[in-house]
Amino acid sequence: VNLAMRGEYFFDDGGSRLYMALPTGPRSETRLATGTATLSYALTNNLTARLEYRHDEISSQAGDPFPNQRDGCASGGRKCEDSIDLGIIEVNYQFD
Predict the structure, then answer these.
(1) Are 29 and 11 in contact (CB under 8 A)?
(2) DSSP 31-92
(3) Nearest-angstrom CA–CA distance, 22 and 67
(4) Cα-only R_g, the chain
(5) Which residues of 46-68 are buried (b: 16+ CB within 10 A; e: fewer)?
(6) Percent of the chain scored above 90 by pLDDT?
């Protein structure tokens, strides 16, 4: 049994990275965070099963940096917060 974990955090102060492609308007800070945990188990010498969980979050004062994805906080300059959780099950076979 193996456990692997990874986390990432990105802070865009002033919107200079995520909002470069958007038209002029209010730019403010955006925070992105993600975390992943993977549990793997060797079923046989060549067969491994993995269970993975991933969580992503975004918080922005300037609105939604991905406005084409959905309606919501893309207008009005209000704070946008969103998150998503994903689960993945995979089985890998390694040929000798």
Answers:
(1) yes
(2) EEEEEEEEEEEESSSSEEEEEEEEEEEEEESS--S-TTS-SSTTSTT--EEEEEEEEEEEEE
(3) 10
(4) 19
(5) eebeeeeeeeeebebebbbbeee
(6) 47
Phi/psi-derived region of residue 76, left when phi > 0, alpha when psi is between -120 and 50, beta in every other case: left
* pLDDT, tens only, 23-53: 555 556 778 899 999 999 999 999 999 999 9
DSSP class of 8: E
Question: Is the C-alpha dihedral spanning 77, 17, 5, 49 positive or negative?
Answer: positive
- What is each CA distance from 14 to 11, 26, 27, 90, in whole angstroms? 9, 9, 6, 40
Instruction: Write the single-letter amino acid at 26.
Output: P
